[in-house]
Design a protein that fits this description.
The chain is of the alpha+beta class and about 230 residues long. About 50% of the residues lie in helices and about 15% in strands. A four-stranded antiparallel β-sheet has the order 3-4-6-5.
């Protein structure tokens, strides 16, 4: 959902509109470098950095240091803060938090996980049907990533060689969390998501990073135990 855009002339784009577009890009694609944002906005890197500096001062963005894909030289990326996330309307998350809050108060903390696990089992059955034609682990991973992207997770599946023997391992990386405000208050949602993937694939699945913990993405390793 894009932020409301202020009026601008046809011959130029106002600084505020550029900042709005910049926030939209970070919301859509997840944490981005200044170079990536400059390219997407079709502006110079110094211009992008000026806008990023303003948004950092406003508390809409935060700067982090990440390794691309978990490897390579560390780089500075910019991600939405809670204040930045709040600029995008999301009444659904507020409703979910209220429902889970009342569920916990009425039936105890364990009730939240029971409800979410029941939901995960139902989702796993539905996804197994949808992915029935996927013969290999990689095809199932790619099919799940496509399904997750339709739901707003901006997910990709990829294969990497790990360890001294060069073992091939599949990963699913979710670059956005549409349920972030819920996940930050109820870690059971993330526990349930991991359970869902384990039920779906029937092989070991481990989570290496988590957006709700302040990291840039949710990264799942599929088919082999993590280090």
């Amino acid at each position: 959902m894009s932020l409301p855009l202020p009026a601008s002339s046809a011959s130029s784009v106002s600084p505020e509109r550029t900042k709005t577009r910049l926030l939209d890009l970070v919301k859509r694609f997840g944490p981005q470098t200044a170079q990536d944002l400059a390219s997407r906005l079709d502006v110079s890197v110094p211009a992008a950095r000026r806008h990023l500096g303003d948004l950092l001062e406003q508390g809409m963005l935060e700067a982090k240091v990440e390794k691309p894909g978990g490897r390579g030289r560390p780089q500075h990326v910019f991600a939405l803060t809670e204040r930045g996330e709040a600029a995008f309307p999301n009444t659904y998350s507020g409703l979910c938090v209220d429902v889970l809050h009342h569920l916990r108060d009425l039936f105890g903390q364990g009730a939240v996980l029971k409800v979410l696990d029941a939901r995960s089992l139902a989702l796993a059955e539905r996804l197994r049907t949808e992915l029935a034609g996927a013969a290999t682990l990689g095809e199932r991973a790619e099919g799940l990533a496509a399904h997750l992207t339709e739901l707003g997770f901006d997910a990709v599946a990829h294969r990497e060689s790990v360890g001294a023997g060069g073992e091939e391992v599949w990963y699913i990386t979710q670059r956005h969390c549409p349920n972030l405000s819920v996940a930050r208050q109820y870690h059971e949602l993330c526990v349930s998501e991991l359970t869902l993937y384990r039920n779906l694939f029937g092989v070991p699945v481990s989570r290496e990073t988590r957006i709700a913990c302040g990291q840039g993405c949710c990264r799942y390793r599929i088919g082999a135990a993590g280090p």
